[in-house]
Write a structure and sequence with these properties.
Elements (H helix, E strand, L loop, with lengths): L1 E17 L12 E13 L8 H19 L3 E6 L10 H16 L3 E4 L4 E9 L6 E5 L24 H8 L3 E5 L5 E3 L9 H12 L9 H8 L3 E3 L8 E3 L1 H20 L3 E2 L5 E3 L3 H7 L8 E4 L2 E5 L4 H10 L9 E11 L15 E11 L2 H22 L6 E8 H6 L1 H11 L3 E6 L6 E10 L5 E10 L2 H4 L4 E2 L5 E2 L2 E6 L4 H17 L15 E5 L5 H10 L4 E3 L6 H10 L4 E5 L1 H6 L2 E5 L10 E4 L1 H11 L22
Parallel strand pairs: 2-3, 3-4, 11-15, 17-18, 24-25, 24-26
Antiparallel strand pairs: 1-2, 1-5, 1-6, 7-8, 7-18, 9-10, 12-14, 13-14, 15-16, 16-23, 17-19, 19-20, 20-23, 21-22, 26-27, 27-28
Length: 635
Amino acid sequence: MQLLLIHSDYIEYEVKKSTPVAEKIEDSFKQGRLEEALTAFIAVEKVDEANVEGAISKAVDEIKSVATQVKAENIMVYPYAHLSSDLSSPKAGVAVLKGVEAALSGEFTVKRAPFGWYKAFKISCKGHPLSELSRSIVPDEASVENTPVCGEVVKEEVVSEALKAEDTAKSYWHVLTPDGVLHDATTFDFTGHDNLGKFVDYEISKKRAVEKAPPHVELMRRLELADYEPGSDSGNMRYYPKGRLMKSLLENYVLEETSKMDAMEVETPLMYDMNHPTLKKYLDRFPARQYSIESDKRQMFLRFAACFGQFLMNHDMTISYKNLPLKMVEMTRYSFRKEQRGELVGLRRLRAFTMPDMHSLCADMQQAIDQFDQQYNMCISVLDKVGIKVDDFEVAIRFTRDFYNENKDFITNLAKTVNKPVLIEMWDTRFFYFVLKFEFNFVDALAKASALSTVQIDVENAERYDINYIDSSGNANRPVILHCSPSGAIERCIYGLLEKEAMKAEEGGVPMLPLWLSPTQVRVIPIAEAHMDYAIKVADQLNCRVDIDDREDTVGKKIREAGREWIPYVVVVGDSEVEKGTINVTIRAESEPKKPVKVEMTPEELNARIASETEGMPYKGLCLAKMISQRPKFL
């Protein structure tokens, strides 16, 4: 359950329209007002269904505690689904809300807003330090004897031994500076490295749950890229045409970059036998939670990476030392991880995601280290072209103490390459299948970190999967394996871009997506109907994703809407442009808030500019109708 508690001068609401899950209410319930009230905005979640009474009890305790602190005698219980992406069934939601209302009524004056109705509300927050508080509540697990009030008892989650080890592993945290000095992470001076400080705090504290939606959630909806899918499991999203276009371009780009490194693209199954002797052992060595399903009385799991399929393929191959390093890559549409509910939000952390997964078979550790270095630099280049620069992410390098002692100069060079301090996590004992791993981590507006690119040196799975190569003497040898995701999850790249631009806007900048990823690169706006033919002519001359705003709105409104859509180039054409054969172009990348940069040029000059900015990057045509008036609204 998610709670948002606001101490207010007053709260009032009025119902406007019912939804398909609206509870039946009397007319007197259609509006309400409370003075001097503590308003409890509540989102009941799926996890609450296993123990509804426990959820009610914990929520009541929290609300009472805050009400006592702020000396509130009146409480408004207000259902607010927007606090969570993992909502319970309507039946459970109503049961919890009614239970909270009943439990509080003995000590407070309580009103409850109806469930499942669109409502208008006004609230006046008092503004003192305790007037806005958020809480995340997870009820205790219901016992076997206690049947949940709503929902079904969930089967016990499959948790790998690696995840259990991750919880118990003793980590030594350091900050490595480019001069090769290891500093204690808890005493390091983060002046000038604020983001690194946030990242270190996030990693050491392990506070993964989010208490409110980060900015990209509103942006992914407003820009009509993606949204939650209520008809699926949490963390499984729907992508609108613009979002699908962005994903496709990113997928193509990453595959092109791995192809330049001689990686062969393959495709492997989505599900595997959980009791396959080799896979069962691997499951326990990978720190991820699995989706499990039953098929023909066999327990299966949905893949959380492309490792299994590629390793099983490697096992069946005949590989010579001349083939090494041998690289295979798959764009997994999708990989599945049963991430915990409180961590799921927007595109930041998903249960179904698209992951480019490349594996390299190396002859020995030295070749693996050489490849690791090459792929480290490739990942920097990939994120740079995506629009996430070195200054936008923080580096974490994780290894065993023995590996560090044997490779100090190599590890130090990784920090030198990015020319800034990096976070180090060191273990005395190897808990996982790798001895070295790095991630590039994006720190968002809520100071939560998310891993993007990663490479790992795997010293276990060649043995586990019986993967061999034949050396120059005809003997069979085990390769060392590298795991690499050049960009991390494709969805997370979009999340990083949206969060980065949201923070830029907060600081007074003009947000925009990289030109090659912008769903519309140029929008043409005719001043009047008389200029429509010229607008169409201009659009036909432009070699990019160009659309035309042909709606019957004012030019000012069209320009403002183009701004809200982050259109990189906005072309306005009127009498002067028709007469001179030119276009008036607003260049978003050079503009400031309320100070647009406008340049007169020809369509050919704009073409040249766009070609220069997008050189070498993938291209696809418009994903929606060219005429704005012909497009549906997705939200």
